[in-house]
Fold:
Amino acid sequence: MDFDSLSSRGVNVISVMEGLDPTTPLGKAMMTILVALAELERANISEATKQRLKALKKLGKKLGRPKGSKDTEKRSNVGYLLREAKKRGDKNLIEKYGEVK
Structure:
């Protein structure tokens, strides 16, 4: 979201520490430069991350969490069980635990 869309919604952003006021021509120019630099940094980080992941995949590294690391225990969350029971129409579980809130 840029400063023009913020100001059109009645939001004013003034950086007191840096002395930037985007309502002035100089302040608007400085904020535009800062936003452009932030977008460039974000794009660089994204590209570097993608390249690292691609390189790791080429080396045969498995990415993501290990299979079964969190899947070993069955869910015991009553809310989850009730939602699943309702989907399947299992009246026994619904009666045992109550209604889904």
